[in-house]
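Complex 116.
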Amino acid sequence: MRETAERTYDCQACGACCCNPDENRAEQYLDYVEVTTRSALAKHPQLIRRLTVLNAKGERHLKLKGAEQRCVALEGTLGKRVSCTIYQWRPAGCRAVVPGSRECRRDRRERGIDPK
Ligand code: SF4
Ligand code: SF4
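Predicted structure with iron/sulfur cluster bound:
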């Protein structure tokens, strides 16, 4: 969580960066978060089978679902209450977005959590 003078960036009340961003949607690009063989998640074959998909190049990514194009590992309602069901094993890409950063603020705007 991060607080600024304007707002509080509480990931557990958000989930915007767990959804495919608009730029990717415009290109019908679904390879949002890569899961490499070095990822802690790769040591859990059942989770790999359930939560990931291979693209045409053989690269593994988290599956996205629904109109929100949200990661299948995300539980809850965007912008209200969410949690990552594989938090301790989440891939490196999930750890890269810093609450309150430019990418975070863009994702929140795109998903309607903050005003445009
Ligand atoms: S978009 Fe920002 S506040 Fe929302 S879950 Fe991601 S890092 Fe947290
Ligand atoms: S693995 Fe967790 S942190 Fe990463 S996109 Fe999915 S729900 Fe979000």
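Strands lie at 2-3, 8-9, 52-54, 60-62, 64-65, 70-71, 74-77, 81-84.
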